[in-house]
Amino acid sequence: MERIAVFPGSFDPITLGHISIIRRALPLFDKIIISIGINSEKSSMFSLEQRLSWIRKIFIAEKKIEVTSYGGLTVDFCTERNANYILRGLRTSTDFEFERGIGQVNRKMASHIETVFFLTEPEHTPISSSIVRDVIKHGGDVSSMIPEEVEY
Amino acid sequence: MERIAVFPGSFDPITLGHISIIRRALPLFDKIIISIGINSEKSSMFSLEQRLSWIRKIFIAEKKIEVTSYGGLTVDFCTERNANYILRGLRTSTDFEFERGIGQVNRKMASHIETVFFLTEPEHTPISSSIVRDVIKHGGDVSSMIPEEVEY
Amino acid sequence: MERIAVFPGSFDPITLGHISIIRRALPLFDKIIISIGINSEKSSMFSLEQRLSWIRKIFIAEKKIEVTSYGGLTVDFCTERNANYILRGLRTSTDFEFERGIGQVNRKMASHIETVFFLTEPEHTPISSSIVRDVIKHGGDVSSMIPEEVEY
Amino acid sequence: MERIAVFPGSFDPITLGHISIIRRALPLFDKIIISIGINSEKSSMFSLEQRLSWIRKIFIAEKKIEVTSYGGLTVDFCTERNANYILRGLRTSTDFEFERGIGQVNRKMASHIETVFFLTEPEHTPISSSIVRDVIKHGGDVSSMIPEEVEY
Amino acid sequence: MERIAVFPGSFDPITLGHISIIRRALPLFDKIIISIGINSEKSSMFSLEQRLSWIRKIFIAEKKIEVTSYGGLTVDFCTERNANYILRGLRTSTDFEFERGIGQVNRKMASHIETVFFLTEPEHTPISSSIVRDVIKHGGDVSSMIPEEVEY
Amino acid sequence: MERIAVFPGSFDPITLGHISIIRRALPLFDKIIISIGINSEKSSMFSLEQRLSWIRKIFIAEKKIEVTSYGGLTVDFCTERNANYILRGLRTSTDFEFERGIGQVNRKMASHIETVFFLTEPEHTPISSSIVRDVIKHGGDVSSMIPEEVEY
């Protein structure tokens, strides 16, 4: 049976932290579907098309990676795509408590889907999409936090 | 002197976690007033009437439980109703730090009112009203997280 | 049915934080049994007799308080003494995670026994028996952390 | 070289907790610039003028304190003002994780600027500007949480 | 390339929480080596032979599981056994901070070895080997926390 | 008035994390006294002389740094040396809760002494003396965690 993982997120924008998690998890899976959750209530800084396009550019050479978007529940998308794993990175204990809640509720709804966590690299711990957006809004330089493919 | 507790919350909607806390705390008090705080700034998914009606239906047989709503400060409502205790459940350490701040500020304003905490059952730890609303919005099944009286 | 609580601990020595929790919880219960757990593996700074004697002196005027010691499991002692509640104070989130584990395991073993938590006063948050012992060992002054009845 | 610190914040309104941090940190620095970050997206309860005026009144006698506001990134404001230190208070571990992220990202952008943390006094731990605003909105008394100079 | 994981631990004794993690992680790996770290400084309640024998009995039917012990560093054992993954369960945020330190130091020493985390089931959150030992020492019943194969 | 800080610790052994904190804090103080607390109950891996000698070698060129040891309470040592500041690094939220307790108790005993915290660099977050000792005991390579002056 194929080991397929969904890496769900907003990726608004994708950061060096996300990329490190994906590259390090890649050997463990037969396929990783990086998938942007469409949330009608939360407004994003960058358009869905823009975000998809950056991620596709970054992983263009990776045959095992697919980049897409989805609406609805993450577990429903996983089921539809035959993915038994959700991939997530963990930075801080605040992160952990949030992810634990989501992960355990996902298993209540679909007990065959497991969330698999990788640790961020220490130097990526302070980097999050929301802090990147905040720095951008105030005119700061985020080149040490995002890949060069993210041009805005 | 009667031991009266107020269990304040949004209950948007009430979950199996809330119900477990209330039933387990009931023998300790002479009366528990489940009371929905009316917060003009925070919009709710379900109407106040709807939320009150569900809670009343669940506890219809419990003579020691009253279900109502209130505006203003929780400690003022407690004083008005002669309640010396605020009842709260604790799920996670993030919960705890939030509740500790509220509880200690409540005592600064009304030193005779104590917050009394019960632990959630382990299986209810991931369940919160906000996660229930999120699953509902995405069309998921929340029947393992809320009581059957909550029909929407 | 009487509301009896056991407040278990090492009380090596009892601090102002413990006393505040006990006094504030007293109106909620018909009886509080302050009980020193005898742990053959953990060595204490002060003898069991000394610790019991200090606590008895502090609460000599409180008819609803009993002071004693016990071996074995806390839940077995509670059952023997007809106590349905374990009383504990919460200072920090590290405390909370520790207490949650103990409290949930206690309910696994004796589902009718609930742990009831009160918050420490903000000014007592940094005070613990272990920090008091540490200051004593280094020759410091602990008079702002313990009651005057604790004479050593 | 002068030791200049910026104490950035919203101060909406300034609390007794902020004041304690500033007064205790004052001997360590040659100058502390209390500076209100102007955030066009976040609406405040009190106007910028009002907030500045309260802080100026409180510290009118302190020659080493300057009160001002700034737009843009905190590190850019620090550079402009020759300040090598950002001063912050720490209340809880949730605070800490948030501040660590900001502080480490600030060093990524400007490695010569260090964030220096002081601990809040235990009795100020539950006090935050957001809890003060919440109590004010519900008609409560905040006189034990803010200085008398904050008149509204 | 084979996906081999080492699940290191003391397993003193193995709990229902450990077993759940292993069974749920099994489909993701080609082999899981459950391996008891031999720590000359830490004394165990049960002998190494006893602990190995219990684990072997539990997983006797699983072809993909091997049960063994090791001395020295976990990463050295992984390298020797061609394992690129260390498997660990996460229960609480205290757990998380501890595991993050170990996991990131392991990567400093052997950058090709990744720690992969699974979440414990909510009902297993309060269960740990140390709490099991503590209940056993006090004469309590641990049958809801350990597998029936663990007979002592 | 001189700004003198004591950086207390066991430094068993000193790590790259400690060194980074000291170097970054140096411009803020007129003198930093790195001081090894002598704790008769805690056994160390390296002798006091060895630890002092490594630290002296590392900072031999720094005129503002003094290296010494002390018995008794840290605040008493500070008073004796006219130091109004205790310098500490913060890595994790577990660290923070521990340090907050110590720091607030120190102020209870000596209200003129403030603890000043610096953040560790992200890449030093997983490094602690205890993890270094653990790796050494198991025969691992700690050269990425300690300075070259630490030869053992």
Describe how the helices and strands are arranged.
The structure is a homohexamer of 152-residue chains.
Chain A: E1 4-9, H1 16-25, E2 31-37, H2 48-58, E3 65-70, H3 74-80, E4 85-90, H4 93-109, E5 114-119, H5 129-137
Parallel strand pairs in A: 1-2, 1-4, 2-3, 4-5
Descriptive account of the structure:
Chain A is α/β, with parallel strands linked by helices and 152 residues long. The first copy, chain A, has a single domain (4-137), classed as Rossmann fold (3-Layer(aba) Sandwich). In chain A, 36% of the residues lie in helices and 20% in strands. Chain A contains five helices and five strands, in the order E-H-E-H-E-H-E-H-E-H. The first copy, chain A, has helices spanning 16-25, 48-58, 74-80, 93-109, 129-137, and strands at residues 4-9, 31-37, 65-70, 85-90, 114-119. Chain A has a five-stranded parallel β-sheet with strand order 3-2-1-4-5, with helices on both faces. In chain A, helix 4 links the parallel strand 4 (85-90) and strand 5. Chain A is globular. In chain A, 50% of the residues are buried. Chains in contact: A-B, A-D, A-E, A-F, B-C, B-D, B-E, C-D, C-E, C-F, D-F, E-F. At the A-E interface, helix 4 and strand 5 of A face helix 4 and strand 5 of E.
